[in-house]
Amino acid sequence: MKDTEIVVGDHRVAIWPQDQEIATLDFPTILMTRFTDIELYHPNLISGILKMEPDAGRNYFRGACGTKVHHVDRWGLPEADLIHARAMELYRRSLSAEQAIVDWSWASVYRQGDHCMPHSHVRANASIVYCLDVGEADPEDPLAGTFYFADPRLPCCCQEENGRVTSLYRPNLQPGAMLIFPAQLVHSVNAYRGGRPRITMSWNISAQTIPGSAIPDET
Fold it and tell me: 6 CB contacts (<8 Å, ≥6 apart)?
């Protein structure tokens, strides 16, 4: 029988809270839900990620999405297990899928100057992003650290002419928000300017196992 709760500290927390809603955004296959019980697990989860960050190794250029802490399901943190299980459930519910197979999962820790160049994800049919901490706002640049889509297949990005990107689509990612979208969509994160780390978690998921490893250095 599938578990419906995970013990986090002194609490038994539902993997999928009752009446948790999934909203369709401005494109039918981009959906979002937002969890409101974050005070039960965000502090310890953020602390755990930051403790692992020094051993993760920084990427060699600023546009590579900060420091990645790989394999969410191997961290040994009940808070991470909860969010991982919620990501799997969001995939199953959104795609009416019986199973969710993770090809790659990670946390991204953005320090000042880090950003994420436009890219798509391979080896997956859906990607999920979960927001732990948006970091500090830059009063001189309201778009600093913003996650966005810039894809010619999205009408909301092509408001002047079909197939030509003239606008960015920016979902409102706040702490507790979990976003699922087709992995092939081009997305990015603007340069982050704050002092407190900006932290997200991500998953690339399919309905079946893909041979090999998404991480070149792993077998």
Answer: 12, 13, 15, 78, 81, 82, 85
% of the chain at pLDDT higher than 70: 99
Q: What is the pLDDT of residues 89-140, one digit of tens each?
A: 999 999 999 999 999 999 999 999 999 999 999 999 999 999 999 999 999 9
pLDDT in tens, 182-196: 999 999 999 999 999
Q: Measure Cα distances from 69 to 58, 73, 80, 152, 216 in Å.
A: 10, 11, 12, 31, 15
- To the nearest 10°, the Cα dihedral for 15, 18, 23, 29? 50
Q: Which domain holds residue 62?
A: 38-206
Domain count within the chain: 1
In the chain, what's the furthest Cα-to-Cα distance?
Answer: 54
- Evaluate if pTM is beyond 0.85: yes
Residue with tokens 């603007």: 190
Question: Closest Cα partner for 181 from 150, 214, 139, 136?
Answer: 150
Q: What is the CATH number of the domain that holds 118?
A: 2.60.120.620
- Residue 80 amino acid letter: A
Question: 39, 84 in Cβ contact below 8 A?
Answer: no
- In the chain, which residue ranges form alpha helices assigned H by DSSP? 42-56, 78-95
